[in-house]
Fold:
Amino acid sequence: MKTLINRKHKLQVSALISGIWLILGFAIAAPNQGILKSNKLICTSSNGDIKALKPPIEFSGSTPGEIRISINPKQRKQEMLGIGSSFTESSAFVLAHLSKEKRREVMNAIFSSKKDGAAFTVSRTHIGSCDFSVEGKYCYQDSEKSPFTIKPDSEGFQRNKYPGIKDQSYDLLPMIKEGLAI
Structure:
């Protein structure tokens, strides 16, 4: 988000707290008066809310002892480049258990900027090894004598070893390519 308030005086706020809540809100602001109230608030939480539409929130001044957060759209300090997630072998493993259609639906829900997508724009991946791997660990170069290779990230998961796998060719690199394509 390069600016907090755009020409239509709307503020988009996104927060991800410990992977438990995802809140997307749109606030109404008036010139020289600041943000007055939220217009639309969508919440997903561990309490069972899934894209639940919540009632608008009225904003008011603070009283002594409250924590007050002030947003001044005319004063820029930091820019938010985007909201995202991580590409890991374990997430590719979970998605390999889905049909291609269901997997595409999940990936669209994460990366698409269309109506039902979260529009994640930033994602990271590890280089070489990761805690979130299927068998606990792996590396792109096991020893000084072995060649460097990213092959482990495109080998897929075999059904005979992992029952329930729907797409044996799906792995970390195909998942990254799928996310980029969206």
About this structure: The chain has a mean pLDDT of 75. DSSP finds three helices and six strands in the chain.
